[in-house]
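Final report, Chapter 2: Outcomes

The project's central promise was a pipeline that accepts a single protein chain and returns its three-dimensional structure in a standardized token representation, suitable for archiving and comparison. That pipeline is now operational. To close this chapter, we reproduce one record exactly as it appears in the project archive, with the input sequence first and the structure output second.
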Amino acid sequence: MSDQTKDPEILTRDDGSMIAYRHTAGKSPGVTFLTGFKSDMQGGKALALEAYCTERGYAFTRFDYYGHGESSGAFEDGTIGRWADDAVHVLDNVTDGPQILVGSSMGGWIMLLAALARPERVAALVGIAAAPDFTRDLIPPALTPDQLEQMDRDGYCDIPNCYDDQEPYRIRKTLLDEGDSHLLLNGKINLDMPIRLIHGIRDEDVPWQTAHKIMEHVKSDDVEIQFVKAGDHRLSEPHDLDRLTRTVGTLLENV
């Protein structure tokens, strides 16, 4: 596992923005972790997978999108396209060989977009409470009349952060509008690789039915869903992490 006391490595984009990442070299296929909305690469799922892969000699990569964690930029200036492009840039410039992409929540949308952009680099996909199209299907219906009025007036609105009462999410209209350019659940998703989806039935942020929608829309027939009856959105308890590493481990041995 990488030394958490050291500064992350930095990948500089053409526009001068910087992506912070941590990469552990190892055998193929490697594993690349894609974080969720306003999350960062220091989360429990990323660290558990890093430890699992490192112990077994597999390459592992985790990073922060633009405006997240230790990367440059302001979170509220980010878009789905920008974050997906960050993921592709990491694939192209940090990782080697085939990768298993593991995406948590929004990262599940990003992993699908990255796999569509670089299908030859992706050996398999693992989605944890994957949330494609959430800028259309989940955020707008949840906004109150006051928030909708603020969005129309100011171009953004603030919504409570269920994990941190002190820091609400600032949602810009540009995030929602730009997200429409990357919607996936309105047509065929041309991905033909092993796909594993893990979703909690008690997820209050992303409905478990979303996993079914992904399965229905992807081209691949090699799709398995694990529903967790008592699981919430985070799926970060020790038994959840064990399930995740078992799922990734099976793919590492077989793809």
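Archive annotation: The domain at 9-133+186-254 is CATH 3.40.50.1820 (Rossmann fold).
This record, like all others produced under the grant, will remain available to the consortium after the project formally closes.
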